[in-house]
Amino acid sequence: MVTLSGTNIDLRALEPEDLDFIYYIENNETFWELSTTQTPYSKFLIRQYLENAHRDIYEVKQLRLAICGKDEALLGLIDLFDFDPVHKRAGIGILIAEKEDRGKGYGKEALKLLIAYAFTHLNLHQLYANISAENINSQHLFETCGFEKIGVKKDWTFVSGTYKDELLYQIIQNNVH
Question: What is the CATH number of the domain that holds 49?
């Protein structure tokens, strides 16, 4: 896959050298709520995943890209998932790994690059995002990129003994700013 290049970041395909970063992300319990993960992943499983990461989105129905600074430092990950070429839609998720890298515009730039890629190259009609009602920063990010809150899934996730609402955001190609 060709690298998607922005002003301050690039999106690129995952590489075998990303093993330790992916291992850190997948095994960091503070991120588990975002992906509904409940168990750690071994380096063996992640290595197998990376060996197959080159497979086509039309085959595996997902695309995960690394968000890298211009110095090639890994900042986070951005995903298309539940890719449905028939109905021309996909889910989208993003994670900037370290708190000190958040709020600097990297997520917004990555999200805008992937939205443009999805609508232009994958010919999608719409993207959606599932965001915790408590995640105000993520809500703001998606709203500033043209997503609209279209629903609330009440008591959707059960985290640390508490049910939490999840918000459904959507952007339709004709409505992109």
Answer: 3.40.630.30
pTM: 0.88
Which residue's structure tokens are 């890719």? 83
In a domain, 145, yes or no: no
Do 129 and 169 form a contact (C-beta atoms < 8 A)?
yes
Range of the domain at 48: 4-124
Mean pLDDT for 117-142 is: 96
Amino acid at 90: A
Q: Which residues of 94-131 are buried (b: 16+ CB within 10 A; e: fewer)?
A: bbbbeeebbeeebbbbbbebbbebbbeebebebbbbbb
Q: Say if residues 77 and 95 touch (Cβ distance below 8 Å).
A: yes
Cα dist from 1 to 4, 34, 55, 61, whole Å:
9, 26, 10, 15
